User: Fold Neural cell adhesion molecule L1 from Cyprinus carpio carpio.
Amino acid sequence: MPATSQQQVGSRGRCAALLLPLLLLSVAPRPGNATINIPSKYKIRDLKSPPVITAQPESVTTFSADDITLTCEATGNPPPTFRWVKDGVEFDPSKDPELSVSRDSGTFSLTAKDGPIHQYQGRYNCYASNVLGTAVSNEARIVTENTPTLQKEKKVSKKVEEGESVVLPCNPPNSTVAPVIHWMDKKLRHIQQNERVIQGRDGNLYFSHVTEADSRDDYTCNTQFPSARIIVLKEPIKLTVVPSNSVVRNRRPQMMRPTGPSSSYLVLSGQNLDLECIAQGLPSPKIQWIRKDGVLSESRTSKDSYDRVLRFKNISVSDSGEYQCTATNLQGIITHTYSVTVEGTVYGVMYSVAEGQMIELACETFGSPRPNDCSSQLQHIYIYIYIGVLEILHPFKKAKMNILCVNREGETWGALVANPRMSQLLDGSLQISNASLNDSGQYTCTVSNSRITITAELDVLNKTVIVKPPLALRIQRGKPATLTCEYQVDSRQDAPQVQWRKNLQKLTESSDSDKYMIDESTLIIPDVKEEDEGTYTCEVITTLDIAEASGSITVVDRPDPPTQIQMTEPKDRSVTLSWTPGDDHNSPVLEYLIEFEETEYERKEWEELSRVSGNSQRTTLSLKPFLSYRFRVIAINDIGKSDPSMYTDVISTPAAPPDSNPEGVRSDSIDPGTLLITWKEMDRRSFNGPGFEYKVMWRKVLGSGPSWHIKSIKSPPLIITDVGNFSAFEIKVQAVNEMGEGPEPKSTIGYSGEDYPLEAPLNVGVDLISSTAIKVVWAPIKRETVRGRLQGYKISLMYYGPESRREHVREGKPSNISFVMTDSNEEMKVLGDLLPYSHYALSVSVINNKGEGPQSDPLTFHTPEGVPGPPSSLLLDSPSETEMILHWTPPSQPNGILKGYILRYQQDNPMQVEKNIDHGVSHVSLKLDPHSRYRFYLRGYTSLGEGLPIIREGATTLDGVPPSNISLSTGETSVNLTWVSKERQRNVGFFIHYLKKDGTCTWKHSERVNSSQSFYTLRGLQSGSEYRLKIDFKNKTLWEDEIQTAGAKFMEVRKGFVTESWFIGLISALVLLLLVLLILCFIKRSKGGKYSVKEKEEGQIDSEARPMNNEGFGEYSDNEEKRTASQPSLCEDSKLCNDDALDDYANSNSVQTEVIMDESLASQSSGVRDVPDPGTQESSPLNPATAISHHGLPNSAALLD
Assistant:
């Protein structure tokens, strides 16, 4: 008998009934390819072999105009037969006339046609079978979709301020096939993308910040579906960029896509993966990618979209890790971390064995995490187990095999087969119905008369459950609706597909992006219409099962207005109103509002009259006399009010006497001797008839008898004169019209107007309580002199100053006046807070509602002497370390005759010293300990005692010294010196000495600096130079430091003779001389004469010049004298006097001039001249060798008349 054994490996949910035959299929939905290895030594003809799938069907998404082909090919001996299962149900493609089936395989195809192809959508498995078993293909899916079409869209217009970020949505049509998206303008030119403007993987166009140049009205998202061979053009988007009113400020980066600090991806090895980072900011952020747990491989990754996308192609397990993108600009950074988990696949190697053959089974595994053995289970990894025992035909004899199945480990065979959910089939297969978590484990089947054992592993996964199904929503038309579908899926399965249906119809088949927004498990309808009502089903589809849940959308709205408004049963003061309800639009009517309008009133407006419950269709309305009504009805539900119904005909009620009298009857009399009666006017709807007026009645409470005075008026108030001051009256007002009077009114008491009091209180007196308080008393006032309602008394207190200033009392000019009010029943008042030793006066007057009466005669008094206030000021001055001088000013409030001062002071310990000081003294000098702090108490005193003290704390100041704890901060041409002034030290002046270290300068010093400044800037330094700084005090150096200023080193340029003052003066004189010569030449030419000099004059000049040679001013040869004597006049044969010479002079660099002077000129030039030796003189354009005259004078010294 066959037997089966099982080893527990875990439990994870339940699945459908499972069949575990000898050729065992796992419960995994996507089996991998399996092969049977035939040993090469077997060369038997017609060797039988089980089927092996050689060409797998592939999933396809197709549109109505596409061909469909599902391939299924297999090998085996005998040749296998093929069958298909669609969505768990047998499917025979040969019976469908639209499908063509291949003869030698299970492949079938559908040729493109115009008819619907939605019936072919589903999940397909191909089964290849022969006598040795069955092979099952991978699951392939056919997803059919309608050809995407352009749906009606609302035009999108965005208006943003310059510098802001913006996203232009694309919203391509929903499809399982991802479209290719292009952003273009109306001329089909691509929108230029860069680091600032980029297209996201979701198709939207992202602007990190906008500029005015981005304004345009033709941003168009073109969605291309290559498989459908169509391009859908979306509605153009208008973007308006408004210039900023202020300077556009930079902004730090913020993530636009994705949001949040982190996200994660779980992928299988071999797939492609794109990680995306799009950030906003100004300026546009730069994107950088790093791998946080390792080095980012440049060979396995690539970057796209201006580094916004990190792309993995054919991802592997080694790529698992954390990847971080960083967006950076001048304002800051922001990061986003992706956690990527890559899981591999476990592959099993399948063998074919013969009876009695020894075989070694090798199990090679890899994955993430790497399995420890062949039975390890990985999330998202599926195993296809295909173990076959070959029946080998021997040339002489056929081996007979008996299959023996043993029980699972730890459990007897009887207990196993006793389970009603488990049964063994005739071929040895074990069938388990309604699998549970406890059924997970390993099952072993052995073959009798052989050593062959087959082990299969059953893994039961958790059932997919929808934990938060869609709700039954009641949504107002035009509002958005959101349906959610939260689910739980076993962690070992792939992410499920969520499919939404409306009334069993897939939403993606006939929906556009504006109508439905599907985000994973959330369905959003932005603008609900009546046609959106229905049942919405959420399907969570995994490879093992499907979970579904349904919700609904009910479109509600304001109710329609009631119709058929009718009035019945009219009476003098009532009428019955009935109506027919309108459509409540799926929201029951809560109440009805009845409104009325007066047709004969000038200002016509609708007012609320009554409310009735929503289940009522009629009501009786109360009416008022002498009015004309018409009515309308409004229905109200949870959504709001309906439009008003049509109004009724006009109904008028007859007149009647008033039903009530006015309220608020009172006397508001103000003027003396008058009675003013007023009341609150009645609403005109309470007049009840024509000729409405008020009947006013009044009489005195005392002395006027029972008769009433009566007067009728149209409106309040009524003023009655000559009725006396503050007299009590009984008053009442009654409503009257032509139909009669209203009910009898109630009377009330009112008073006529008040007048000012006639007299002041008598017997006013003052009792002194203390130096700061008095008691004021007076006699009661006669009530008849009050002439109104007594409100109290007013005490006027006048302050004239201290006792020493009696002239204020004589002059009658108080320096301050204050007032104190009392109650009407008070005849005594205590006044406090007076100033001692001061002159006062007071008077008392009577107060009523009208005002203040006359004041009593002023009563003068003075307060006795008191203790003084504190001295006005106290200043501490320390001229030395052991001396403290206290300066003070007298108290501002002596409160008497000041006798003197008492000074008390104490050190840090409780010891106290007291000194008595004469009142005329304003300062005192104390000898104190320089190491202690003191507290000083100074107070004045009078004959009544000591006053309050003024308190100061302090200590003597120590001799000051310049600072030594100096901090330095250098610049290019200055250095900042800062220090902290020591406490208790007197200010002292000092200088900061500085010396440049290159040795070319001497010590310099700053201006005078005070030690209390705490800061000083030393300026005038040279950049890039080293300096020594020091502070000297009392012939000692207290502080010294070295600094180097910032910047390039200053290169000192040595001055040449060109910049010397004597050279500048020489050149200036030469220029002046040449100018004078030119002027003389022009004068000479204009006169036509010559300038000649006699020989005698020359000799005289020589004789005067020769003594100068003896003094070392120069020696001259005879040749030079002869040449000088034979010189012509200034203009004779001279080039300076012709026009060409003048032109040459203007263009020449230097001019040689010889001047012949007469005796008068020579006599003027007999002074000592400093002339260089001609033999050593350098010849140059500025200093020519021939520029010295024969008379020992340089050219610049020539003198002319």
